[in-house]
Amino acid sequence: MKTRYIYFVLLFLFSCTAKEQEVKEEQPIVVDNKITFTDAQLKSAGLTFVKLEEQKMASVLRLNGKIDVPPQNMVSISVPMGGYLKNTKLLPGMHVNKGEVIATIEDQQYIQLQQDYLLTKSKIAFSKLEYERQKELNQSKATSDKVFQQATAEYNSLTIMLSSLGEKLKLIGKNPSSISEKNISRSISIYAPIDGFVTKVNVNIGKYVSPTDVLFELVNPTDIHLAINVFEKDLGKLFIGQEVVTYTNNDPKNKHLAEILLIGKDLGEDRSTEVHCHFEDYDKTLIPGTYMNAEVQIKANNSFVLPEDAVVSFENKNYAFVKKSAKEFEMISVQTGVVENGFIEVLNGKQLANQTFVQKGAYTLLMTIKNKAEEE
Q1: Averaged pLDDT of the chain
Q2: Average pLDDT for 291-320
Q3: Got the DSSP string for 155-197?
Q4: Contact 286, 333 (CB under 8 A)
Q5: What structural domains and CATH numbers belong to the chain?
Q6: Phi/psi at 136 (nearest 5 deg)?
Q7: Using CA atoms, how far apart are residues 186 and 27, in angstroms rounded to an integer?
Q8: What span, in angstroms and rounded, lies between the C-alpha atoms of 114 and 168?
Q9: Membrane-spanning residues where (predicted)?
């Protein structure tokens, strides 16, 4: 009985050793970046092969920037002569129409300005009559030149003053021709100069504002554009009218088409400049200041390409497997570029033009080499 037990133990150990040897024999030989198969292993691996192709590949330049508004669509509203804010209903985000009253300002200087205008207007009527009378007397030598000159100077002075006061009235929104002693007002109205939205309200009712203070800021977003930053090395790839595809980080699937409207002519310290793009359609969800991504398709060039599955990545580097012989394959580093329609551009493809590459099974070969390296 004991002899039979020993026999079974020896048989079991022999069987395990044979299986271990069989497993070892099933593994291909790996030396550095080369891997060698037996006929059976090669058949089992099911590898397929491909050569470099030459085809047109359109590269994509990826940029970023933010939505901006041209200066003519942004307005800072101030009061030319200052005063106390009497009334306003504006809130940030509120829409206003061009010509709409958005605030009322009052101050005694508005009364004084209208008074000065009406008094000057009254004086000029008398001065004109006196000027014409002195002119006739001077022509008949009934009065001296000095008197006539004084009358002329007085009339001209009042004419200049009336014109100046009239322009001041226009500056605060008053029509000089409509002012009379019956409608002198202590307040003026502030009108919206554009259609748009309120972005800032810097005052409150009762506050005194000076001419240098900005009461409100308005923006008309219908003419928003995208200002993207482009480095010097990429400027030569862009041109006016070129199509740009843009999207936000929050909604990358929602694409917004734009075209290049203006390319900056000066470079900053980081060797970049702004390129302005105009959106084809206005989207209310695009708010000035929003950061966006932009993709510009560059003109297609002939390039050497491989199918995507023929190129594998490991630790941020790209590799491909070259067929050295019927059973031997070598892993080489490749420089990649654009990926399009299932193909990947091989930038150093000119030096590899006559090589045969592994397509199906390339990732398996990569794992075999890397696992062997870890075991060692």
Answers
A1: 82
A2: 84
A3: HHHHHHHHHHHHHHHHHTT--GGG--TT---SEEEEE-SSSEE
A4: no
A5: 28-57+302-375 (2.40.420.20), 62-72+220-297 (2.40.30.170), 108-178 (1.10.287)
A6: -65, -45
A7: 98
A8: 10
A9: none
Q: Which residues contact 14 (CB under 8 A, 6 or more apart)?
A: none
Specify the length of the chain in residues: 376
Tell me, what's the pLDDT at 139?
Answer: 74
Residue 105: band (very low, low, confident or very high) from pLDDT cuts 50, 70, 90? very high
Element (H, E) at 269: none
Helix ranges (H only) for 75-175 are: 108-139, 145-171
The candidate with the shortest Cα–Cα distance to 121, out of 173, 158, 67, is 158
Q: What is the rounded distance in angstroms from the CA atom of residue 110 to the CA atom of residue 91?
A: 27
Q: In the block, which residue shows the tokens 């060698």? A: 36
pLDDT band (50, 70, 90) for residue 374: low
Yes or no: say if 254 and 247 are a contact pair by the CB < 8 Å rule. Answer: yes
Q: Are 26 and 43 in contact (CB under 8 A)?
A: no
Per-residue buried b or exposed e for 255-270, using 16+ beta carbons within 10 Å of the residue's own CB = ebebebbeeeeeeeee
Contact 278, 291 (CB under 8 A): no
pLDDT of residue 182: 87
- Torsion-angle region of 89 (φ positive above 0: left; ψ -120 to 50: alpha; else: beta): alpha
Which helix (DSSP H) or strand (DSSP E) does residue 376 occupy? none
3-state secondary structure of 72: helix
**What's the mean pLDDT in 350-367?**
85
**Token pair for 166:** 């009239």
Separation between Cα atoms, residue 249 and residue 64, nearest integer Å: 11
Model pTM score: 0.55
Whole-angstrom distance, CA of residue 140 vs CA of residue 147: 13
- The pLDDT, as a whole number, for residue 84 is 93
352/322 Cα distance (integer angstroms): 9
Main-chain phi, psi angles of 47, to 5 degrees: -70, 145
The residue behind tokens 């089992």 is 44
- The residue whose two tokens read 């809130």 is 91
Residue 106's pLDDT is what? 92
Q: Alpha-carbon distance 174 to 189, whole Å?
A: 9
Q: Which pLDDT does position 208 carry in this prediction?
A: 92
Q: Go through 192-222 and write b for each residue having 16 or more CB atoms within 10 A of its CB, e for each that does not.
A: bebebbbbebebeeeeebeeeeebbbbbbbe
